[in-house]
Specification:
homodimer, about 375 residues, alpha/beta, Arc Repressor Mutant, subunit A, Dna Topoisomerase Vi A Subunit, Chain: A, domain 2, six-stranded mixed beta sheet, three-stranded antiparallel beta sheet
Chain lengths: ~375, ~375
């Protein structure tokens, strides 16, 4: 079996081993409690915290979504739960294997690893990945370990450039010298994989799309304004959100978002800031309550003297989504945001960051963002 | 107006200026021919090569799809063509602006730049981006310039690691020291943006998905097998295809593809190898006739002793697509490929690269690919 031969330092390797030992301990604890029950003639079961909207609480003080205390038992001797019980044990076993062998796997890989026909029956352990991913989330909450700590990753998405050097598995990556492509943000960005080595940047500008990111990188915005430039290719994946949160918490960098003026842009901001309902159990590791929304704003059509070509009519679904988002507790109690969403609905149209090109190719990098930054004109 | 201040060397900057001057010359030539016609009382028109299946030829000797000689006139004084004529002129003007200001723009940016209501009418120049992109392709073929030479980019997608140093806008990027994330491949990878500086790698392993790429990078496959590792996040975008072609043509590296055993995987291979019908006019800059298909193969279910859990039933649409692909001229005359597609159809199921995890987490990196490489067991 080949061993990883990357450039991770001995000190970090030690930290990884300690963290993995802790996760393994929890896994073995889970297995032991099940086997103890069985051996002593009691029903084998696992207590799993409930990941539903009703068990999701808005912690106003912390400014994030959190999971409540509700939980339920998953029992082997219960016809409705036996399959899920078995699935939970299968995934726990795969994760133990991954950790022991110092490897990671994708969500799909974990699904395949557990998928088979139960011997002597025609019953499959899993039929579709959609059954498998929630079982992994159950394990996350049951063990109190992030998916990343369980050695499971999702797709990589998003890139980064700017005035920072990060160390990734022992390799120093100078994000000031990444050309036009940038550093591809990995899916697992925990402190044992990524360390921040040297950072002059004073803030992070996070944009929605790679095409907008290209405009800012080509104009060397990050150099002129001493910042870090990131994008998440739409709704940012966990790796991107976690890296932004670490930049905010560990380096105290403000996270400033440039997203579209539409319900999708508002939702992306909401997830970056407060977390999502489906992943409420890990908001404290992902959410950035201090994140700011610089634009595009509903007022920009008038304030920037834009032409009609920037308008995209709101659909009925957009209007429905906008009202749903306005009713989120963190937006509901925020007058600025109530005005913003009402402004968009009153306009009757949405606007994309890319439409600012109608003013000038580099209007967004040379005027729009610099002016708003200087005036501290953003939503929180 | 801010100037680009990247690290591009003076020699390369000179080359960019020469190339841009050439493209500008062609654009001005196009405009002059239109205005000359108008001033001399003739009908203003542009001759545009035809981008249809019927004007796409399979060049067996070169092993790529090519565009035929057919073309058609686009006239101003023709009710059916006037709008497209105007759209063509608008985009030509945007591109002239981009080149003169040494900036690039996204497809969507170009669309916005040209989108407006014609003064004194209720007619829009463009309503949707779907109208705009084909006009840009018309300009590409009319001018004989790649979209990249017209300063227009698409989304960035895909990443790279391995035994190569590339220079990207003057920044040296050591792909041996890119940690777990890798170098994000940009959309424009022409020789004036990206140069190959130092390369020990003997081949390129191109995989379909980022999750598979992660497995190979984590196992440091590129180090052990002295290669470059790339992925294109599914169907690789133009930037990724062009970079693979340059690695093949300029550095003489074999391009070895690891894709799923399904019609989608076969189609991705077909596009990498021979080009696509819609972009036949640029096959000579994108296609890689020497590209090889290492797997997953229909025979692997038996040969690798895989379990039933790897099987995904072929849908009716899969069967239809498989037969269409088998009828492509380059596959039709290729006995190996006829057997391969028939093998998949006879199996009745498809298989994904990720399903090899059912053998072992690192079976794909430690056994499957090394064995096939050693045996030169691939399709061409």
């Amino acid at each position: 079996m080949a061993k990883r031969k990357d450039n991770t330092s001995p000190a970090i390797t030690k930290r990884i081993k300690e963290r993995d030992a802790k996760t393994l301990g929890k896994l073995v604890g889970l297995a032991q409690s099940v086997s103890k029950s069985a051996l002593s003639g009691r029903e084998p079961k696992v207590e799993i915290p409930t990941r539903t909207k009703s068990n999701t609480l808005w912690n106003k003080k912390r400014g994030i979504l959190e999971m409540g205390d509700a939980s339920s038992d998953r029992e082997l001797f219960n016809l409705n739960q036996a399959k899920q019980f078995m699935q939970t044990m299968l995934h726990a076993s795969t994760i133990k294997d991954l950790i022991e062998r110092e490897k990671t796997s994708s969500l799909r890989g974990v699904f395949y690893k557990a998928k088979h026909t139960v011997a002597g029956t025609k019953e499959n352990t899993f039929d579709r990945q959609e059954e498998s991913d929630p079982i992994l989330e159950d394990l996350e909450v049951t063990l109190g370990s992030l998916r990343e700590e369980l050695h499971v990753f999702a797709e990589n998405r998003g890139s980064m450039v700017g005035n920072i050097t990060v160390t990734d598995k022992g390799d120093d990556i100078d994000c000031r010298r990444m050309g036009s492509g940038g550093y591809a943000m990995p899916s697992i960005v925990e402190p044992d994989i990524i360390q921040f080595k040297k950072c002059e940047a004073k803030f992070v500008l996070h944009v929605e799309k790679g095409t907008v990111w290209n405009r800012f990188n080509e104009d060397r915005f990050w150099e002129e304004h001493n910042c870090i430039l990131t994008h998440g290719a739409g709704q940012p994946p966990r790796g991107c959100r976690r890296l932004l949160q670490r930049l905010n918490q560990e380096l105290k960098l403000p996270i400033i978002c440039l997203l579209d003026c539409d319900p999708w842009g508002h939702y992306i901001y909401s997830v970056i800031k407060q977390g999502s309902i489906s992943l409420a159990f890990e908001s404290s590791r992902l959410a950035i309550p201090e994140a700011r929304f610089l634009g595009i704003r509903a007022k920009d059509y008038d304030e920037c003297d834009l032409g009609d070509s920037v308008k995209i009519d709101l659909t009925e679904n957009d209007i429905k989504r906008a009202n749903e988002i306005a009713a989120y507790p963190w937006f509901e109690s925020n007058k600025q945001w109530q005005r913003e969403i009402k402004g968009m609905l009153d306009n009757g149209f949405k606007m994309e960051v890319e439409s600012l090109i109608t003013k000038d190719i580099s209007y967004v990098t040379e005027e729009y963002v610099p002016q708003r930054l200087k005036a501290k004109d953003w939503l929180e």
